[in-house]
Design brief:
Radius of gyration: 19 Å
CATH superfamily of the domain at 8-147 and 179-205 and 270-281: NAD(P)-binding Rossmann-like Domain
CATH class of the domain at 8-147 and 179-205 and 270-281: Alpha Beta
CATH architecture of the domain at 8-147 and 179-205 and 270-281: 3-Layer(aba) Sandwich
Strand content: 15-25%
Largest sheet: 7 strands, parallel
Number of helices: 11
Helix content: 25-40%
CATH topology of the domain at 8-147 and 179-205 and 270-281: Rossmann fold
Distance between the termini: 43 Å
Structural class: alpha/beta
Length: 301
Amino acid sequence: MTRQGDDVVAVTGASGRLGTRLALRLAAEGAQQRLVVRDLARIPRLPDGTLLPDSDVAVASSYADREAMLRALDGAHVMFLVSGRETPDRVSQHFAAIDAAVAAGVERVVYTSFVGAAADAVFTLARDHFATEQHLRMSGLRWTVLRDNLYHHALTTFVGDDGVIRGPADAGRVASVSHDDVADVATAVLLDERPHAHDARTYDLTGPTAITLAEAAATMSELAGRAIRYEVETTQQAYASRAHHDVPRAEVEGWVTSYAAIAAGELEHVSDDVSRLVGRPARSFADWLDDFPDQWAHLRR
């Protein structure tokens, strides 16, 4: 994998878990990139604290800030579009980013979507992703869609302070994936020197196995050295147990329906796209826990 001339890759969400990992990989490959962030204080840096080589930084407070997005995308050949925050205007934010890419002369967009994205998906946020995918397809841009499963890290955040995962997932299975595997795939797709190799392609990015939340809890319990378990809730109980959170209703719906989507079997499909695109097996949840203990240190008591 080598640098593609002076093509500029605009990496949105560059300060987030996925964007930072991608930016570091692109820098290691010598790619020229523009890091699009909301906060200059959170620019990705090398381990020694220095700025990434062959990169510059643009600030956009949101995808809806058209002028800021046009400046951020000026001269960029491709945009890596990280899905936005789980807010009621999320779809319009995504549309705004895609429209800005068209107006700025960007040729190609690689978008992080979600497995099972569909208009009638159980998981409400998967519906948002489907709407975004449709807008991207109609934009006239070259596009690639990376449909990520739930992230391994997300499973660790399901654990409450009392060591219990609660939700209406029943005995459904989830083929969760690591941020690092997705970043490796994105790097391969963005820097592939074969012309149009990934145009109009949709990849499902999953782990190598699908596990139940009870199995995930048992694995975390063993490694964390404390009791962690899964407790099934009804949908009504799930909404009631989350009613104290001061967040929009749409966000709570996203939380609850993520469990419901697991119960419905929408997240159980295991794909080999990670291994095909990066040349090695995807990392399992257990392996990820073992490899990155700092990422779930909050589970230790």
